[in-house]
Design goal:
Radius of gyration: 19 Å
CATH class of the largest domain: Alpha Beta
CATH superfamily of the largest domain: ATP-grasp fold, B domain
Distance between the termini: 25 Å
CATH topology of the largest domain: D-amino Acid Aminotransferase, Chain A, domain 1
Largest sheet: 8 strands, antiparallel
Helix content: 25-40%
CATH architecture of the largest domain: 2-Layer Sandwich
Number of strands: 17
Mean pLDDT: 94
């Protein structure tokens, strides 16, 4: 059964406050343990990455075993690679045993209401916009581009955040200015492109193409600094392609939930994406192949094997 209510762990000292498509957020509770956490770390949240998987704005079942660990450990690795470019929200990985490996204690940020997207290649919703208008979020692109084309230079294509079950909406830079002001909008754009530029080169050196990525930033209440939050550069928030299989003009092989999307839109699933019916449960072979892709992404990028 898809779109099920998430199963949230009970964690001593922490109170559950929110569940997204993949992540669960907790804050220190009013117990002795919770007060001690606040005294030690200040205003923090515990970010737990579950094994839930979503596609086409539905949370599916079953989840992908170990996916939450991959997302957390890969995010932590990237935060280290980017530390000289932008501060991040991670305080400590000293977390309850029940969520060890899949959770981070993070500073609570005042999040900006913008999905900060950088694209170096044309695909997905950007490709759909380009085919309709020759532009992506108001940025004119050369004619003749196809699915998977490398862009002349990376572009910032922001989106407004959507609630669970709704679509993010690509918007022009001017809409970001209206939301957060010109100075902050420029800072978000510049940081997004800087992070993408660094990560694209790191990935390329490891035989992986970073086609695009979505970042989230917030202001640190204590300093006002624009800070990188949420997850970063994982297969859930980015498109990673094997460089040796890149072939513009077709859909690219990718290190993400490609098998999930492909099965859902195939006759084998029997699901009509345009209907109001939730998707069916995922077959075990689709789950297993998707898990392999997440693990391969981690290993290729970091050069380390991940024991789950």
């Amino acid at each position: 059964m898809s779109d099920a209510t998430p199963t949230v762990p009970v964690l001593p000292g922490w109170r559950h406050v929110y569940s997204g498509k993949v992540r669960d957020l907790f804050e220190p509770d009013d117990s002795t343990a919770g007060v001690a956490l606040r005294d030690l770390h200040g205003d923090v949240v515990l970010v737990v990455a579950s094994d839930r998987v979503s596609a086409y704005d539905h949370v599916l079942s079953p989840g992908i075993p170990g996916k939450g660990v991959v997302l957390t450990q890969l995010s932590l690795w990237w935060f280290e690679q980017l530390a000289d470019l932008v501060p991040n929200h991670v305080v400590t990985t000293d977390v309850p045993d029940a969520v060890a490996g899949r959770a981070m204690v993070c500073r609570r940020l005042d999040m900006f209401p913008v999905e900060c997207v950088a694209r170096g290649y044309l695909t997905g919703s950007g490709l759909a916009e380009y085919r309709a208008s020759g532009e992506v979020t108001g940025i004119r692109l050369p004619s003749g581009l196809v699915d998977g084309s490398r862009l002349p230079a990376p572009i910032f294509t922001p989106a407004t955040k959507a609630a669970v079950g709704e679509h993010d909406e690509n918007v022009r830079f001017s809409a970001v200015v209206d939301l957060v002001g010109p100075g902050t909008a420029e800072r978000l754009r510049d940081l997004t492109l800087a992070v993408y530029g660094r990560a694209e080169q790191v990935a390329r050196d490891r035989g992986v193409i970073l086609a695009d990525t979505k970042l989230e930033f917030g202001a640190d209440p204590s300093t006002g600094d624009v800070t990188l939050g949420d997850e970063v550069l994982t297969p859930d928030s980015s498109r990673f392609w094997p460089a040796d299989q890149w072939e513009p003009g077709r859909a690219q092989s990718s290190f993400d939930k490609q098998f999930v999307r492909d099965w859902l839109t195939s006759p084998a699933s029997g699901w009509d994406r345009a209907s109001d019916t939730p998707p069916p449960a995922l077959p075990q072979d689709v789950v297993a192949r998707t898990r392999e892709r997440y693990l391969e992404a981690f290993e290729r990028l970091t050069g380390r094997a991940l024991s789950l």
